[in-house]
Amino acid sequence: MTDHTAAAHEHEHPTVRAYLMVYAALMVLLVATVGLAFLDLHVNFLVSMIIAVIKATMVILIFMHVRYNEKLVWIFAGASLLWLIILLGLTLNDYQTRGWLNILGK
Amino acid sequence: MSTASTASAASGDRRPNYLNVAYGLRSWLLTTDHKRIAILYMITITFFFFIGGAAATVVRLELMTPQGDVVQPEDYNKLFTLHGVIMIFFFLIPSIPAVLGNFLIPMMIGAKDLAFPKLNLASWYFLVGGGLFALWAAVTGGVDTGWTFYTPYSSMFSNTNVMATAIGAFLSGFSSIFTGLNFIVTIHKMRAPGMTWFRLPLFVWAHYATSLIQVLGTPVVAVSLLLVGLERLFHVGIFDPKYGGDPILFQHLFWFYSHPAVYIMLLPGMGVVSEIITCFARRPIFGYRFMAGAVLAIAVLGFLVWGHHMFVSGQSMYAGMVFSLLSFLVAIPSAVKVFNWTATLWKGSVTADTPMLYALGFIGLFTIGGLTGLMLGSLAIDVHVHDTYFVVGHFHYIMVGGTVMAYLGGIHFWWPKMTGRMYSELWSKLSALTVFVGFNLTFFPQLILGYVGMPRRYYEYPPEFQVLNVMSTAGASILAVGYLMPLIYLLLSLGIGPKVGHNPWNASGLEWEAASPPPTFNFDETPIVTGGPYVYELGGGVQREHA
Amino acid sequence: MSTHEVSAREAKHAHGHEHESGHLAHHFETLDQQSKSATLGMWTFLATEVMFFGGLFGGYAVYRAINPESFALASRQLNVALGSINTFFLLTSSLTMALAVHAGQTSNRKGQVRFLLLTMLLGATFLGIKAYEYYEEFEKGLIPGLHFNSKGVLQFPTSFSELAVRRTQLFFIFYFFMTGLHATHMVIGLGVLGTLAVLAHRGHYSEEYYTPLELSGLYWHFVDIVWIFLFPLLYLIDLHK
Hints:
The complex is a heterotrimer of chains A (106), B (547) and C (241). Chain B has 547 residues and is mostly helical. Chain B has helices at 6-12, 25-29, 34-62, 73-92, 95-109, 117-139, 153-157, 162-189, 202-234, 247-281, 288-301, 317-345, 354-377, 379-385, 389-419, 425-451, 466-496.
């Protein structure tokens, strides 16, 4: 019926060239991360986080093959990120709003 | 009657089933058959249930009199902590998923086993290992922090076995995560041909939603317990004000899991109830898609409400308002489920078999528990009843009136499938009634006690509270009898109960196609599904095989 | 009354026709189903890891948000050069890991072993440098606890409140816990990779079945991603000031 090789790798996979290109990009971004940290950009934190997100996205999509996986894997990866945001968001919601209501002790 | 499966049923007597296919301790301790693992879990959690129950017995004995005259106050703290830790981590959280879920999910979706059978076995070992840690902690001095391990007491001041208990809970968390992981992948990937998502029994949907919570929530309580352990070990920690830490951060991390955890305990019970109600009202479920959507909504929304355990902790009041509003939202899908079960009963052909008694009890008691939950979710009321017996009454209505009743109902419903035997109808109905009466006598007085101001976790109280406390203890003794009865008649049924065929309740569902007890690989050939669940003719009677 | 309308069964046998591969487990129908399930299972596990580390990131976020100056001051004490070099080694190990998986996909046995060993070497180098950093921090008196800042390397400006002074110690608690947890995950990863290298050498993996390589790759890349965030969050706070 189906031949095992087609069944064994259910997705195409990145070429060695793709891996090397991602690696090169990661190196550039690493230099950027460190370099930009020394410059006063007023939004340094945001910039460093955006670069980190870009690096992580490349690792996820190419190194971890998510770009070539079924949509379900995308959903699982996205869900973990969403839940992390829920944890961080609602916890910070407490700490950042202490004292907002001008009620003694609150 | 059923279709082509009667062939396998007729020959079922002679072919080996999952119970007698192999004998010996090794065949059980090294099994990868989901059905055997379910039985291992059933024995394990029953053992822990009675240990947790024993702790509760001493607590209720102490509370019969206003003075502290049965145990020392430190020991009282250890007893209610033991009760909570054992019941939550080693009974309630595994109960329905690890016993009924493990046994039934592959069968309900037409698969031969779960996606990762060895992981399933590992998950049982983690529960046992964690339980041994917790028990060892209990017998070598106990732990007195409460099951909630609040800092800074747990991290800095308690002189009891906090680390060992935390390790026990941590290991049980792995058990929970592995089970959830297994269920998620299984339900996605191993459904039989034709078994689309909207043809799944609601039991499966409920376990899918539960598994999402297990996977996404448990790691956070794991890290919070790890941090408490590290603080005890190294005497530095992130909850310690000496270093600028905030003890309330622990509560955030702890409750981020522990609130969704109550839905881990509740949702599988809702799944069981849907299966039982449809069978014994002989009707398809009312509003299938809303029922499926409701369990998912509860699972997701349940992650957004944890601060309602922290209204008076020092959390910002603004955050309290946000959490209160979200808590009201999560009540909506729960109510939808209660309405739809009721609508399913309407004009159904209802019979009062034991599983149905438990399911009906669930609906009523869960409703009361849920309504008291809404009261607790209101900031102004909670200020008065936080840390009182009102809270204790509320969560026991859900956990015991809800989950335990659903668990017992499910055990009674699927017992013939799991064992091939039927139990005594008289004794099972008597025991269901005993449980119901005992439960209400135990916990309704607690709602009143909390309302009039009796604090929780106290071993003594003002004399004016004694009458209600005595009622509660009396109820607890009746409840205990109600729980001991099934232990006896269910075990007896294994020896002297009548043997049943594959579908003694004439129920709808792939699991009833297989023999009772099923063979190791569940089905001779992969079933092909062409229709939805709950195929009951409206107004049709129940045909009983062994009647 | 019939149940799911289970109609005539296909003449499919319980044992898959791909059974001759020897890699198909009994409860799966096809190798494709099996490998997709494995991938999904691994991603589910990684979701639990995201939430596990997430608790620590959450705590970090809270304290940094309410006392950013404490964290910035404390962060100055870390060795940015070593941290950057370590990041380089770890990112490179991710490349070699991806290439090891690729060697599995292309039935390249020698490549599998070579790249697995290279990944292990880079990972071990990372851990070695980390250990050296810990030693440096110990020498500077930055271990939280009784002797914190006993060497006086942290000088607090007068604008610092008492709480802000205390929270510099909190930064180091997070630093050691988070990098320690990360390092623990790497040690476990090294153990897994070592096992795989042995099995790969014995020819266990080929394009027909290389699932353990793929799954370990996912784990290793995840550990890398945690570091991608840890590095700027711990080492590069307000470096420009």
